[in-house]
Amino acid sequence: MESCAENSISSTGVNASSETEYSIVENKIEDSNNSVYDCEKSDTSNVDANLSLDSKSPNASEVSDSSNVDANASPDSESQNASEVSDSSEKEGNVLEMIDITPENSAGVMKQVIKPGEGDEFPGFGDRVYVHYTGWLLNKENKMFDSNRKDDKLEFNLGRGVVIKGWDLAVSTMKKGEVALFIIQPQYAYGDAGYPPAIPAHTPLLFEIELYEWKLDDISPKKDGSILRKVIDKGEGNTSPNEGSEVKVKLVGSFEDRIFEECEKEFILGEGCSVNVIEGIEHALYKFRLNETSLIYVKSKYGFEKGSEEFNIPPDATITYKVTLLSFAKAKEVWEMNTDEKFEKSKVAKYKAIEFLKAGKCKAALRQFRWILACLEKEPGVPPESQKDRKDLLLSAYLNISLCLLKMENYVDAIKFCDKALEMDPENEKALYRRGQAKMFFNDCEEALEDFKNVQLLYPENKAAIHATFICQEKIKKQKKKDKTVYNKMFELFMKQDEERMKNMKTETGVWEGEAETAEQAAAYKSETQRLIERNNNFLRDANVIEISNTVTNF
Fold first, then answer.
1. Would you call 487 helix, strand, or coil by DSSP?
2. Nearest to 379 by CA among 345, 352, 349, 354
3. What is the secondary structure of 332-381 as a DSSP string?
4. Long-range pairs for 437-441 at CB < 8 Å and ≥24 separation?
5. Which of 27, 52, 200, 313 could cross-link 93 (Cys pair, CB 3.0–4.6 Å)?
6. Buried (b) or exposed (e) across 482-516, using 16+ Cβ within 10 A?
7. CB atoms within 10 A of CB 6
8. DSSP one-letter code for 216
């Protein structure tokens, strides 16, 4: 992080060019109903400022551009006011000393710590930060324009430009648990135009920000912490590699403080497995900028899931890579290609995919087959003479994607792509057989059996389908036997429950123990008994049990 010069603001002005005077007085900032931060509740002994608390003052901490504020203006009772600035504030001894945190010492962002944070660490570029804040306009109105104090914490990636420039700078200077005030000039906020109607033109802003915590940037596909990034050098430019980019990287891999790999590699992004680049690194590179250096923490599912004998890494280990993106050349996006280029890209992708599939690299193969779908599935400009080639490429992609998904045990999606293939070719042997496999592995054996029988009907010599039919039938038999056992046990349980109920009911027809039976009781008894009979009969029927217990009375 760049060091920030610390220039104090005094009543004589921020600097010679700004001719602006800021003072902060009083001991708290209040929202319209409750105090959002009370200095009396915190330890201010460590604040590097001359802070004098005036417990008698009822207004909010008063900060403003003295050239725009009427010292005699009364606060609006229905909105929270920012601090008023006047020359008398210094005389009263209520001046807070603020520091300039801009790299160019322009007083564009001024800071005053209200509550010191803990530790010596600061959030870095790209870290996920969590804050509460309140913002005021520093003009004649001095009103609060935004706050999330009563809502969930705001979270964003620091330095990525998702918030105003002044916020990225401000939060980068804060420690965990710190509360601070920031005066942000228009050039670090919404510019000269402002953000109407909430923020008028040429308006500086006052923010109170509380930094709760920050975390490393989670760049994993499912946001489960399996790939984390810590930016060391944010690099240059605003573009990143895309799928198919030619990249050159420097890699330093470590495990338990031991460096196991240090090298430079060149490859096509999406095909890193061809040069033994782990999936977690490839996924991270989509977020990199040119010359960026970051630490990438990779859990086993995107690293060496089964361990690595070459690098002496055990299974299920989390590893760390220091990655530098030395160069990259972006690939053409699909929307930038003409029809001929899309066909050429699809043919190359099919060839690469089959090679990856032969090598057992299903994920890499799947990415290549998906290129065919991206290029041709919704391509409107295919001439009539190329329609057959388009159909053949798409059918091949659907069939092979279903095969990859079967190997990856993603049976639901495998069925979907088999369905797509069967829409193009209803009697396709591979699509019927693979859909049957996916259904069988998904324990939908009845429907799987139907697919396998269709394969045998259309292709009698298909021995795999014959064998799969036998396996499916055995699974169905075992499941029925298991279901029968379960239903019998359930029936026994229900019968015991019925016997317990009968003990508390009549012992003879029409005779009740205790008080005389009423018509309502008799009707309720008959209804309850009939319901029990129907319920038990359902289970008996499902289990193929014929005999019904003689203890059940028929009506």
1. helix
2. 345
3. PPGGG--HHHHHHHHHHHHHHHHHHHHTT-HHHHHHHHHHHHHHHTT-TT
4. 437/406, 437/468, 438/402, 438/405, 438/406, 438/411, 438/412, 438/414, 439/411, 439/415, 440/468, 440/471, 440/472, 440/475, 441/406, 441/409, 441/411
5. 52
6. eeeeebeeebeeeeeebeeeeeeeeeeeeeeeeee
7. 13
8. -
Q: Strand, coil or helix: what is 75?
A: coil
Cα-based angle 128, 130, 131 (whole degrees, multiple of 5): 140
Reply yes or no on whether the pLDDT at 149 is more than 60. yes
What are 507-526's pLDDT values in tens digits? 555 554 545 556 666 666 55
Residue type, 439: K
Contact yes or no for 239/330 (Cβ under 8 A): yes
| DSSP result, 440-466 | HHTT-HHHHHHHHHHHHHH-TT-HHHH
- Single-letter amino acid code for the residue at 27: N
Using alpha carbons, select from 358, 349, 370, 371 the residue that is nearest to residue 413. 370
Task: State how far the Cα of 370 lies from the Cα of 394, in Å rounded to an integer.
Answer: 10
C-beta neighbour count of 338 within 10 angstroms: 9
Determine the distance from the C-alpha atom of residue 529 to the mean position of all C-alpha atoms in its chain, rounded to a whole number.
54
Least confident of 290-304, 310-324, 402-416, 524-538: 524-538
Distance, CA of 421 to CA of 418 (rounded, Å): 5
In the chain the first and final C-alpha atoms are separated, in Å, by 86
Nearest to 189 by CA among 208, 164, 207: 164
Pairing of the two strands 319-329 and 227-233: unpaired
Asked if 138 and 205 count as a contact pair (C-beta separation under 8 A), the reply is yes
- Yes or no: say if 207 and 181 are a contact pair by the CB < 8 Å rule: yes
Tokens of residue 446, six digits: 């009845």
Alpha helices in 114-196 (DSSP H): 165-172
Cα maximum dimension of the chain? 107
pTM attached to this predicted model: 0.66
Rounded Cα distance between 266 and 405, Å, is 28
Residue count of the chain:
555
> Confidence class of residue 93 from pLDDT cuts 50, 70 and 90?
very low
What's the gap between Cα 177 and its chain centre?
25
